[in-house]
Amino acid sequence: SEGLETPTRYLAALEAVQLELEAVEEEAARAFRRLRARFCLRRRPHLQRRNRLIQHIPGFWVTAFLNHPQLSAMISDRDEDALSYMTSLQVEEFGQSRPGCRIRFFFSVNPYFQNDVVAKEFVRGPSGHLVSHSTPIRWWQGQDPRSRPHKGPPAPRSFFAWFGDHSFPAGDRVAEIIKEELWPNPLQFYLLGEGAEGPPDR
Amino acid sequence: SEGLETPTRYLAALEAVQLELEAVEEEAARAFRRLRARFCLRRRPHLQRRNRLIQHIPGFWVTAFLNHPQLSAMISDRDEDALSYMTSLQVEEFGQSRPGCRIRFFFSVNPYFQNDVVAKEFVRGPSGHLVSHSTPIRWWQGQDPRSRPHKGPPAPRSFFAWFGDHSFPAGDRVAEIIKEELWPNPLQFYLLGEGAEGPPDR
Fold it and tell me: What InterPro entries does this protein's entry cite (chains A, B) (predicted)?
């Protein structure tokens, strides 16, 4: 019976190891949560100041979007005008307990839609897949691009089509660019188009 | 000229804020790197002990794979036999400076291929996209499934087809399952099939 008991002994030892690992993981999760919270607080006053400064620069966000080599490809002429009313961007990462992020776009009163803020949000669904949601856009009468008669060649890719597209969140390259490139340093993209004028005074 | 200078002043202030944010991000990156290294060290002895224990349980990994509801769907009968020679799994996350991970599968001498370890690796390519690579499998003569005559209905999904598939790394659900579910607690999947026998002695 020694031979029969041995695998059970190994399994019991393995279970003990898993419990030890679990304790380490819980401690790690707490430590990372604390560190994230600490740096979230550290960033906040700078981000608030950045947000206030940007509001003084008309067309900052639409310019930064248009100057990004990949984002510009999905901004139609109509998008460009709608995005010229964008006043603020906010990217918020959720904690480790709920991985995901929310991208919020703030707008001033504009002739396209009624929302003053729209959000696209990415979270893990119950199956473990990344899923996305977005605020329904309340277009003004006749402004919904899907209901407008369309002439000429097929419509180019559009910012608002991306915004409402939830077909493949894990491969949402636009969200990734906004989160990883534009949000950390929007100024560099804003300035890209200003080459001829040189960098701002220091 | 006050009106002309104002945007430049805001841009200069914005640049100063970006530099401050950059300093915070560098400090954050250092702090997270330190914390990751600390917990990597904390986990190591437990993972080494787990690895040694698992080697004493024949067929541990193939059983854990087969008992995972989603992984089992991509294990053909031939895969099952090949995976019965798998002795060890290793999942290694790269640092933040080089996001990605490497999954290594260790095998004992077997009639299918010559490698004793094969790895599938995920890294960010220069364009920012996730790309994957894997070790070329040195099949023994006549064992490469791609060169074997195939009878009957289309081949089911296969572990080795997944291993060599680099068409869409960002959506590699199998890698995600191995990394996020199997690796943290393989024992729970190993035991799933043992329901009738009850949990191991404690």
Answer: NAP-like_sf, NAP_family
